[in-house]
């Protein structure tokens, strides 16, 4: 049955009364809200009462130490995150140049916004020294104008202190020439997915860093020195990644004032014929490292072949990190030939090497060595080493830090065996007149290589701890299975 006119008028009147009542209630609530809002607006959050200098300093500590990738432009991290909190924090962040002094940008990921991001970000840094990382390739990405991108980057070049460029061979021709990098001290250049085919190497060298007078630290990955015009004479630190032996020798000869040098090397399959007349001597190098690099292709750079053809008479630190193609005789010959004042030695054989069987009777080690790190020590080496360490004050007389890393390779000393040898030798060492006292001892088991150790076996190390020695036995910093502060049965 359809409602009558009277019913409709009644319903309209009822709803109108309800709306009027709600409107009156809404007005009352607004009247209550107004004074409360005035009181709230009169209050200030304690954090907003801090002096601007303090807030700026806190903001700087909010910057991530490392980013998950090359690109560090994220709204979930400082400094961009700070812009989203409140107006006052945004003003403080934008007026703190140091917050914007570090930029990492992945150009293909940012595409057409890359140029604007670089200009805006670095513009906020003002005159602060800049650290800039640019990941390519650039030329064939969706970026509107690669020339404009480099023009923008070069406009900020006078304040860039550290620069890292990763680019493709096709980007080589669009790199600018002779840029004003007056503040540049550290430079890293990487080629993206380079297969080391000589015919594809660019013929014209890059000249954009020719006039950099303050540069002292250089890192080149897959780029031969002859492909970059640089003030080579002034460089103090150099790293060459994915090099062959000829490129290593070329680099050493170009930089006579080097004090620090590192290479990851390919084994020269063509055969580098050498004799005593071809051994290259570099008197400036104090620190030298050979390390392992897995390239983007199938190449694995982990050779120590260079040791056969160089002499470093003033070497103080030598690190062989996960490298092959050497044995104790090659290393012994290198040290004897160089006769360096060596203070630090790290011997970490690669996968193709057996346990370390370094002849530690090498006279070149005795006089100055203070820090020794050995990976995968051979059983006979371990026995000889600790017997000499505990009985002969003239054996490594200045040694203060000793680290041993174990993995369970064939003929390698076991963790339990090393613990037994070390316990007695370290205790005796403390009473040898004329021998330096060890300040630090590390025994680290790699992977699943471990053993059960009793409290009795650990007792000597706890006594050493009480006497002031820093002792660690375990499987890594985040998985410590023995520390002298712990007790009970220990799994190492």
UniProtKB/TrEMBL annotation:
Ranges in a coiled coil: 5-32
SUPFAM superfamilies reported in the protein's UniProt record: RNI-like
Gene3D superfamilies: Ribonuclease Inhibitor
InterPro entries registered for this protein in UniProt: LRR_dom_sf
Keywords noted in UniProt: Coiled coil
Protein name as it appears in the record: F-box domain-containing protein
Phylogenetic lineage: Eukaryota, Fungi, Dikarya, Basidiomycota, Agaricomycotina
